[in-house]
Amino acid sequence: MHSYEGQSSRFIKRLLVVFVILTCVKVWIGPTELTPSARGQVKAFDSGAQRRLLLDEARKTNRLLGEIIEVLESGMINVRIQSTDNKQTGSPQTDAAKG
After folding, report:
1. Is it the case that residue 1 has pLDDT exceeding 70?
2. What is the rounded average pLDDT of the residues 68-74?
3. Would you give the DSSP letter of residue 44?
């Protein structure tokens, strides 16, 4: 008679072999329709239009950076600090109403 441990270990080994074989078959066949594939959400692939948009955005960025450089080089920067405390003596709405 065989012991229960011997039968269970043989069963587990056989089960493992079956899983390995199934895995190898799956890798060999490749993805099936059951597994969803990643698809881009690009409606129309127009590389020329994409390049134009990229260049437009780069020009905007360069223009804005140029304006920032001009402000920094001029040395005239006005900074206004607004308190976040609730104990302000006057609020803009009450000051505007008085004026």
Report:
1. no
2. 88
3. S
